[in-house]
Automatic annotation (TrEMBL), chains A, B:
Cited PROSITE patterns: HTH_MERR_2 (PS50937)
Presence of keyword DNA-binding: yes
Segments forming a coiled coil: none
Organism domain of life: Bacteria
GO molecular function, one term: DNA binding
InterPro entries registered for this protein in UniProt: DNA-bd_dom_put_sf, MerR-type_HTH_dom, MerR_fam
Source organism: Janibacter alkaliphilus
Protein name: DNA-binding transcriptional MerR regulator
Pfam families: MerR_1 (PF13411)
Ranges where the HTH merR-type domain occurs: 1-68
Record's keyword terms, sorted: DNA-binding
């Protein structure tokens, strides 16, 4: 237990708490007050730590994610439950009914890309809401380029999935999905800003030479 | 003035406030208590509204952005001041000094893309911090794919710049830059999630057939 604490960077008290809450599987008992923990326990603790500390998810949500992992699920299931936990359920009605115009616009984009997705998932609702906000602000120059954005998003999602698919265990995969979703987002945002600087530079120079 | 209010969706009191604060240029006086406003005033109000309501920027920052617009600046200047206002200055030291390893990793990626960017800009600092966090969490599978992410980010930034460059006036361009930055972000996030679903689906099916 002491070694597990040292390796995971968590306190013994925290690890005992996760054991009591059923988030960490029990070790193999060797005597009444002695148990052996292995690499799977360390991997699970790293996952719980990521969900709690980095993602800031509540205990109930962490339990849900851990249950999926314990159930020997596929990457697909893992990604679905992680996405739902991270995007969060919105209490309101399905975006598809509230924003039919945006839903239809998005449907065309999805069809063009050939995406097989989960209709009604929080991600799908979020996409419809985002399109609806662009339409409400009359940002036609962005709405007109939805296909281009979807193509770029396709590249990002493919890299994300490929990156985590190679992990050694499902725990490591989910940790990759969770941390990837949380930490990759500011990275992509910042890289896009740098790319904007570059392309604005290019445009400026073209104007000067024109 | 009443017509300006009706067209912009703002109250007369709000418009008068923007006039007093020097954010909105004065109308052409036709008598002591009568002034004529034109399309440029409406465009400016739409920009101020976007900065205040949608971006939630403080008055001082809005003034900075509006000054750039009034100065007949280029898209490049407009983008720089908008990015700085949106990303926000971090009080701490330059990320480049705090995170030399992450800064070097990022430098290689930027060089590979051939990006001309503003070193020391908030966007550059944010990118260094994002790389540093991935490295701190030992997410090598993501760090190893930085080049791929940068390629995808390049596509997004190019679309962003092309979308706003075609606007009729600099006010409209900046409004596009501001609203684009704020509203396009959740759109791209949601599209990436849908793309993740698709690619996880594809991977799952490959596993079944294997």
């Amino acid at each position: 237990m002491a070694e597990l604490a040292a390796r995971s960077g968590l306190t013994v008290a925290t690890i005992k708490f996760y054991l009591r809450e059923g988030l960490l599987q029990p070790g193999r008992r060797t005597s009444v007050n002695q148990a052996v923990y292995d690499a799977s326990h360390l991997e699970r603790l790293r996952l719980i730590r990521a969900l709690a500390k980095v993602a800031g998810l509540p205990l109930d949500t962490i339990r849900e994610v851990v249950q999926v992992v314990s159930g020997q699920s596929s990457i697909l299931d893992a990604m679905a439950v992680t996405q739902d936990a991270l995007v969060g359920e919105r209490g309101d009605e399905d975006s598809e009914d509230v924003e039919p115009a945006a839903a239809e616009t998005l449907a065309h984009v999805i069809e063009a890309r050939g995406w097989r997705y989960q209709p009604g998932s929080p991600a799908h609702s979020a996409a419809i809401r985002a399109v609806a906000e662009l339409q409400a602000e009359d940002l036609t120059m962005l709405v007109d380029r939805l296909d281009d954005y979807a193509r770029a998003a396709d590249a990002v999602g493919r890299i994300d999935v490929q990156a985590v698919a190679g992990a050694d265990s499902l725990d490591a995969t989910i940790r990759g999905v969770v941390l990837g979703s949380i930490l990759r987002r500011p990275l992509l945002d910042a890289l896009v800003l740098l790319s904007q600087q570059h392309h604005a530079n290019v445009l400026d120079q073209e104007d000067e030479h024109a």
